[in-house]
Amino acid sequence: MTDKTPKTAISLTYPAPQTPKVVAKGYNHLAEHIIEQAEQAGILVHQDNELADYLSRLDVGSEIPREVYLIIAELIAWSYMLQGKEPDEWNNLHQKIDQKV
């Protein structure tokens, strides 16, 4: 039995401190092209059919809804960890904590 579900790809950008936005989306061959281009550019690709289905309802250029902020934040954090990176704001975070209690 073959899966007849169309392949979906959604590309997001996160121009911090702004909200993540949908910058591309496609189905089937276009989805495969989006994924291929992302991989060639060294962008991590996450496969989640339910999330892709939800995000595919948004128009290109739309900000992601508040309901999925946590999911996207977790994916961004995961991608940073996999790449051995950390956000600039995390540098010396331990020195910014007010020790006066």
From TrEMBL:
Alphabetically ordered keywords of this record: Bacterial flagellum protein export, Protein transport, Transport
Entries under SUPFAM superfamilies matching the protein: EscU C-terminal domain-like (SSF160544)
Entry keyword Ion transport: no
Keyword presence, Cell inner membrane: no
Domain of life: Bacteria
Pfam families according to UniProt: Bac_export_2
Family: Belongs to the type III secretion exporter family.
Biological role stated in the UniProt entry: Required for formation of the rod structure in the basal body of the flagellar apparatus. Together with FliI and FliH, may constitute the export apparatus of flagellin.
Protein name: Flagellar biosynthetic protein FlhB
Source species: Catenovulum adriaticum
